[in-house]
Specification:
single chain; alpha+beta; five-stranded mixed sheet; four-stranded antiparallel sheet; 33% helix
């Protein structure tokens, strides 16, 4: 049989074709109907696979070798981001407000051609292989929870995946044992004061002033509530209030993110964000409602499998 490197090289033009199709037909989370249909049709052309649709916009292919061995899963995500593409390419996104700007077109194409490659070499394999094309990665808790609840990981011993990145030169890949990514959480703070005319601030409770104090107060979460040896990032990224230059608004909305590696740090950040926001608001005669939304946990790569 042809060596695996030559076989992979032979599949490269098809992989590029698949990737460009996915890129051109970008679809947002939970809307990947055309993408899933393309994947399913391509998999139907590969003999010996058992295909299923765990959810409306996800696809799984199972390759059973008939020989005893472990059950391995390989996973890729398939959804795009809500971005208008500005590139001038023959395969630029044909959908306004949707673009594969995070590499999921590449992930899907790589996995699809990995199926072709491994299915052609099934006589060399043992155990079972599951290929999971997961929808809605960009919208936590996303499609992972749905496909897991649908049973795609029942009996699976190991799961593998990859992520494209522009931080490495083309043709290079990195492997990391243990913690790889930070947990990513979002917080929303709705500050309610009392609006009025800018000429009579004494009649108002200015939510912008309160919001500014909260923004500065949140900077102490990392410097005073978390050990210097525990890495974390807290950023306030949106501040929205007001409708006119001479009107003090009645409310202000802040949005930000917390990135951390340790569960205890995560809990401390949430607790302090609530306490600081509500305490500052109360002291000013305003109120603050904090909504802390947990995103994905940190990726932890099993050291033995990494080796």
């Amino acid at each position: 049989m042809t060596d695996i490197h030559s076989q992979a090289q032979a599949l490269l033009p098809r992989c590029i074709e698949d990737r460009r199709w996915f890129h051109q037909h970008a679809e947002l989370s939970f809307q990947e109907f055309e993408t899933a249909a393309y994947i399913e049709k391509a998999l139907e052309e590969i003999p010996g696979l058992v295909l299923s649709r765990p959810t409306a916009t996800s696809v799984m292919a199972v390759l059973k070798t008939g020989r005893p061995g472990r059950c391995l899963a390989i996973r890729a995500d398939i959804d795009a981001l809500p971005i208008d593409e500005a590139n001038e390419l023959p395969y630029r996104s044909c959908r306004q407000g949707a673009m594969h700007a995070c590499g999921h077109d590449g992930h899907a194409a790589i996995l699809l051609n990995a199926v072709r490659l491994l299915a052609a070499r099934r006589e060399e394999l043992a155990g079972e292989l599951r290929f999971i094309f997961q929808h809605a990665e960009e919208t936590p808790p996303g499609g992972a929870v749905e496909v897991i609840r649908a049973g795609v990981l029942e009996g699976v011993d190991e799961v593998f995946g990859l992520h494209l990145t522009s931080t490495l030169p083309t043709g290079k890949f990195g492997v990391c044992s243990g913690v790889l990514t930070s947990a990513t959480d979002r917080f929303e703070i709705e500050i309610t004061g009392k609006g009025g005319h800018s000429s009579m601030p004494q009649e108002c409770v200015d939510p912008i002033v309160v919001g500014a104090q909260i923004i500065m107060g949140l900077q102490t979460v990392l410097s005073r509530s978390i050990k210097p040896s525990d890495m974390a990032v807290l950023s306030v990224c949106q501040a929205n209030a007001g409708s006119a230059y001479n009107i003090i608004p009645g409310a202000m909305h802040l949005t930000g993110s917390v990135r951390s590696y340790d569960e205890a740090v995560r809990q401390t950040a949430e607790r302090r964000i609530r306490a600081i926001s509500q305490g500052i608001a109360q002291a000013a005669g305003a109120s603050a409602v904090v909504d802390y939304i947990r995103g994905y946990d940190s990726i932890y790569n099993d050291p033995a499998l990494t080796r």
